[in-house]
Design goal:
Elements (H helix, E strand, L loop, with lengths): L14 E2 L12 E8 L5 H4 L2 H16 L6 H15 L6 E3 L1 H11 L2 E4 L2 E4 L3 E5 L4 H5 L6 E5 L2 E2 L5 H5 L8 E7 L2 E7 L2 E4 L3 E7 L2 E7 L7 H14 L4 E5 L5 E3 H9 L7 E7 L2 E6 L10 E5 L6 H13 L2 E4 L7 E7 L5 E10 L15 E2 L2 E3 L5 E3 H10 L1
Helix pairs in contact: 7-8, 8-9
Length: 387
């Protein structure tokens, strides 16, 4: 297996005011199905190997010379079964880890619903959010949050001034006047970062997908329709640093572009190969480029391969991670979860990219300059190709 280095994406200048929990649990994750694991079925009750396991468990519980934490012992036993499979993607998650993963992929966060850049300038106020309802507007400059000045602070530092547990007081500068707003954070859908680049009289849309959450298909469609209202003639989809999530999200996004009947992906499991095709009447025909890198994995690769093979999209960046396996998750009654590989996924051309990744049509780097800033040659190349 080739080595893969960690990579910090520096090209996205807009930071959404949200504190996200990023854990290793989601690395290369692609979830096909999520269901409850039902114990005590007829097939399990007649399983001789399981009976032997229960005999050992009962014997230890009754006869071990010290008290046993039975919950921890069962956790260790389940983890050992999955470790026996010898495959990195099949793991046991305790309740805390399961909750963390669920929160990460829920597609919601607690915040006020603005995006900022240059430290304190509001560049986007999302509809139906606390900020929108309070009257904050794009181009407002945040001067103070809860009596703390924002001058000299970067986007992350300004975002961290928001107290998610109570009402916040924001003082902004608008048209030379100072205005005060009271805003209470709420649970809202995680918005996607969007932008329009203009070059050679062409408008190029840009959407950054951080993760394939439960809500990503819905949010992507909103972002796409917004960009199309701005008159874009082409689109850049940025899935760099996107390590995966729900396969459903990749399918929903691909279906916005593909002609009905085109293949999105196939799954190869114990029972053979099942092919999944676009069943919607919605489609587009303008040029698309996807930005990928070493940490573009799993559901991100499914989307990139689908749009490359079935739409004709081009890929720019670096060779992707190469995660060609699909996991199912089964939630246990105590809130923990088992996650195991149930199939390989194949591109529309029938290829498995596991361990290899997707090769870009145009290989480019992000370069660090002497002054510490970054030049995003990957994004710049995409804009050049579409203009």
């Amino acid at each position: 297996m080739k080595s893969r280095k960690g990579f910090s994406l520096k090209s996205v200048a807009i930071i959404i005011i949200v504190t996200a929990i990023i854990t290793s649990l989601t690395t290369g994750l692609i979830i096909y199905n999520n269901s409850k694991l039902i114990l005590g079925s007829a097939s399990l009750s007649s399983d001789s190997a399981l009976k032997e396991f229960l005999k050992v468990y009962s014997s230890l519980d009754e006869n071990y010379y010290e008290d046993i934490d039975k919950t921890k012992m069962i956790d260790a036993a389940i983890a050992a079964m999955l470790k026996y499979l010898g495959e990195d993607y099949s793991t046991y998650l305790n309740q805390t880890e399961t909750d963390s993963l669920s929160n990460k992929l829920s597609g919601t966060f607690k915040g006020i619903g603005i995006s900022i850049t240059n430290g304190n300038e509001i560049v986007k106020v999302y509809e139906d959010t606390p900020a929108f309802k309070a009257g904050l507007k794009e181009n407002d400059k945040i001067i103070r949050i809860n009596d703390t000045d924002t001058e000299g602070k970067n986007q992350i530092e300004v975002a961290n001034l928001i107290d998610k547990t109570k009402e916040n007081t924001l003082v902004v500068s608008r048209d030379g006047a100072e205005l005060t707003f009271k805003v209470i954070p709420e649970e809202i859908n995680t918005p996607l970062t969007t932008q329009v680049y203009e070059k050679n009289d062409k408008k190029i849309g840009y959407i950054y997908i951080e993760s394939f959450t439960e809500k990503v298909g819905e949010e992507f469609k909103k972002s796409l329709e917004y960009l199309e209202q701005q008159g874009i003639t082409s689109l850049i989809i940025d899935v760099r640093e996107n390590t995966g999530g729900y396969l459903k999200g990749a399918t929903e996004i691909a279906s916005l572009f593909l002609e009905k009947g085109k293949t999105i992906y196939s799954l190869e499991g114990k029972d053979g190969v099942t092919t999944y095709k676009d069943e919607t009447d919605e489609k587009r025909d303008y040029p698309i480029i996807l930005l990928i890198n070493e940490n573009t994995a799993s559901a991100s690769e499914v989307l990139a391969a689908a749009l490359q093979d079935s739409y004709g999209a081009k890929l720019v960046g670096k060779i992707s991670y190469g995660k060609g396996k699909v996991q199912q998750t089964k939630q246990l009654e105590d809130g923990s979860m088992v996650k195991y590989t149930s199939a390989r996924w194949l591109t529309p051309e029938g290829e498995c990219i596991d361990g290899f990744g997707l090769a870009p049509h145009y290989e480019e780097d992000i370069v660090q300059n002497e002054d510490g800033t970054y030049t995003d040659n990957q994004l710049n190349k995409a804009i050049e190709l579409l203009s």
